[in-house]
TrEMBL record, chain A:
Naturally occurring in which organism (per UniProt): Streptomyces gardneri
Transmembrane segments: none
UniProt keyword list: ATP-binding, Nucleotide-binding
Residue ranges occupied by any ABC transporter domain in the UniProt entry: 4-249
Protein name: ABC transporter ATP-binding protein
Family: Belongs to the ABC transporter superfamily. Ycf16 family.
From TrEMBL, chain B:
Domain SUF system FeS cluster assembly SufBD core span(s) in chain numbering: 137-364
Protein name: Fe-S cluster assembly protein SufD
InterPro entries linked to this entry: Fe-S_cluster_assembly_SufBD, SUF_FeS_clus_asmbl_SufBD_core, SUF_FeS_clus_asmbl_SufBD_sf, SUF_FeS_clus_asmbl_SufD
BP term (GO), one: iron-sulfur cluster assembly
Protein's organism: Streptomyces gardneri
Organism classification: Bacteria, Bacillati, Actinomycetota, Actinomycetes, Kitasatosporales
Family: Belongs to the iron-sulfur cluster assembly SufBD family.
Length: 255, 393
């Protein structure tokens, strides 16, 4: 069973006046089939955790370990991590000029699977995944994220999640900026992947709203660069009622 | 493509549409068009038409110090049946019919050549094989003039290949009879030290179609100035260009389409990729719709993809309209960069770095390459683009 283990992870970014530590010792274990929600106020370091796991060059790991089934993830390049089974659905996916969605998806699936998917089954696979996410087939011919609405970007991220079938899926604020219908469709997509039992999900969110659609097994409260409390789904209800104030030493950090 | 927020440092993209204004195309020239080099002052670099060009690297083409040497360029023409290939003297009356030189180097080329080549496709001849012209630089200085003339309803494809090392100033005339169809592919695949400055004049006959594909990969300085005018109504011109500018190279494409007659069409699309320190691409796209040119339909586009830091693009589309009675007129210019965030995004989907770069560049050029419509040229271009990318890694 695939397991992602994060141990005492420290991460800094380069700021104007030198490196600034964002993650201050994160411990978290995610097993295949489990869903972990990480919740916390803006600026608590949730997204830094997501991008550090995917290997974004902006973030420097200064301490700790991350392993996937014992393999050192931090030693891997960004593409190696993806091929090892780590997927990050981004909050702000970037535009890639000149590259069509269909070309991108196929190139990516080829890289992840180690061989080009058979054309006939691939076309069907993409088509049915797009239908389930209520995406227009014309979407496949557009350039990656170019001119996409917020909802389209998120659907496109989840489409990739469905097609690439990672071992560990990190969803960074996938719910932000979505209306209720889009949130439901995107959540259904995530749930289809979860129901296979083959993915461990790290759901990063600011709001409890998405947890009505995607039921977490564990909820972690993130504050000032580390997990400050962990519990079951009931912890989300507490956050819904009480907010993050109790976890912020500075008070009122949430927006 | 991400515009505005994603323009590489130092690059410019400026567009203008002037309606019934005093012609800036005319006013930006230092002197009126002329066949005589003496009519043009030696440029100093501040002139509008020279301000982007590194004059110091023109090896004297602009100031009269470049003198033709014995071993300039070798020209070989391979033509199928139905084509006449001649080498003629300066007094041949078919020379210079498609347009006058508009700048000092073009006039220098016209004033300095000794022999010109004239390629004629007879009236109504429809060629099934392309005419291939190989221009190979032998390391010297050369001035050239070529005329490619198609009789009425003739159809031809011409592929002009520039290779080797040379300092070459040239003018090329394309004269299309009524209803003729000409596709010209000019490939600048020079060695790294070559300097090539050329003016291409196309005179498009009534209901004729002209397609120009300018492909620039090599050379130290390459400056190509394709111009189109119409000799009758109903003509069409498609001007496509593709360039891959590497470290230190200056590649400049300046276009002018003059809609001087009614019901003509023009479509300009140039795309370039740049990589490396001091790679510099310049694109000037001028379209002038004169008062008589009612029913004109024109569009021009320039796209640039900057792959690394240190490269610079100057892109200036310019449309001047002297009549409102037109079918359509527009332009677009954008310069974007392939940045770390795009790379991260693609790599985070398992795609290795070199593959990610190829994907973006291939995608960027694909649509334009397909429009060329000549499979062997298309394949060669894609292979060349791949090779450019390989070299960069």
């Amino acid at each position: 069973m695939a397991t992602l283990e994060i141990r005492n992870l420290h991460v800094s970014v380069e700021a104007e006046n030198g490196p600034r530590e964002i993650l201050k010792g994160v411990d978290l274990t995610i097993k295949q089939g489990e869903t972990h929600a990480v919740m916390g106020p803006n600026g608590s370091g949730k997204s830094t955790l997501a991008y550090s796991l995917a290997g974004h060059p902006k973030y420097t790991v200064t301490g700790g370990t991350v392993t996937l089934d014992g393999e050192d993830v931090l030693e891997m390049s960004v593409d190696e991590r993806a091929r090892a089974g780590v997927f990050l659905a981004m909050q702000y996916p970037v535009e890639v000029p000149g590259v069509s969605v269909s070309n991108f998806l196929r190139t990516s699936a080829t890289a992840i699977r180690g061989e080009a998917p058979k054309l006939r089954t691939w076309v069907k696979e993409v088509k049915s995944a797009m239908e389930q996410l209520q995406m227009d087939p014309a979407f496949a011919e557009r350039n990656v994220n170019e001119g996409f609405s917020g909802g389209e970007k998120k659907r496109h991220e989840i489409l990739q999640l469905e097609l690439l079938k990672p071992k560990i899926a990190i969803l960074d604020e996938t719910d932000s900026g979505l209306d209720v219908d889009a949130l439901r469709q995107v959540s259904e997509g995530v749930n289809r992947v979860r129901e296979t039992g083959e993915v461990g999900t790290l759901l990063i969110t600011h709001y409890t709203r998405i947890l009505r659609y995607i039921k977490p097994d564990f909820v972690h409260v993130f504050s000032e660069g580390r997990i400050v409390e962990s519990g079951g789904a009931e912890l989300a209800d507490k956050l819904e009622n009480e907010g993050y104030e109790a976890y912020s030493t500075k008070g009122g950090a949430s927006a | 493509m991400a515009e505005a927020q994603n323009i590489p440092a130092g690059s410019t993209t400026a567009g203008s549409i002037a309606v019934a204004a005093e012609s800036t195309v005319a006013t930006r020239m230092s002197a009126p068009p002329s066949f005589d080099v003496a009519d043009f002052p030696v440029p100093h670099g501040r002139e509008e038409e020279w301000r982007f060009t590194p004059l110091a690297r023109l090896r004297g083409l602009h100031d009269g110090t470049a003198v033709a040497s014995g071993e300039g360029v070798k020209v070989e023409v391979q033509a199928p049946e139905g084509v006449t290939v001649e080498t003629v003297g300066r007094d041949d009356e078919r020379l210079g019919k498609a347009g006058k030189p508009v700048d000092r180097v073009a006039a220098q080329a016209y004033s300095s050549f000794e022999k010109a080549s004239v390629v004629t496709v007879a009236k109504e001849a429809v060629l099934t094989e392309p005419i291939r012209i190989a221009v190979h630089g032998e390391g010297g200085v050369a001035f050239g003039h070529q005329v490619i003339e198609l009789g009425a309803f003739a159809e031809a494809v011409v592929v002009i290949d520039h290779t080797g090392d040379a300092v070459l100033a040239a003018s090329v005339d394309y004269v299309l009879g009524d209803g003729a169809k000409l596709t010209v592919v000019s490939v600048q695949d020079w060695d790294e030290k070559a300097v090539h400055v050329a003016q291409h004049n196309a005179l498009v006959g009534r209901d004729a179609s002209f397609k120009s594909v300018v492909v620039t990969f090599g050379g130290d300085v390459v400056r190509i100035h394709p111009r189109v005018e119409y000799a009758g109504p109903g003509g069409e011109a498609e001007l496509f260009g593709l360039y891959f500018t590497d470290a230190g190279q200056h590649q400049e494409h300046r276009l002018l389409v003059t809609h001087n007659l009614p019901h003509c069409k023009s479509n300009v699309a140039y795309k370039g990729a740049l990589q490396g320190q001091d790679a510099h691409a310049v694109w000037i796209g001028d379209v002038l719709i004169q008062a008589a040119a009612e029913g004109t339909d024109t569009y021009e586009l320039n796209r640039n993809l900057v792959l690394t830091d240190g490269a610079r693009v100057d892109s200036v589309p310019n449309l001047e309209i002297e009549t409102g009675e037109i079918a359509g007129a527009g332009h677009a210019s954008a310069t974007g960069r392939f940045d770390d965030e795009q790379l991260f995004y693609l790599m985070s989907r398992g795609i290795p770095q070199s593959e990610a770069r190829r994907l973006v560049v291939r995608g960027f050029f694909a649509e334009l390459v397909q429009q060329i419509g000549l499979p062997d040229v298309q394949e060669r271009l894609l292979a060349k683009i791949e090779a450019e990318l390989e070299a960069s890694v």
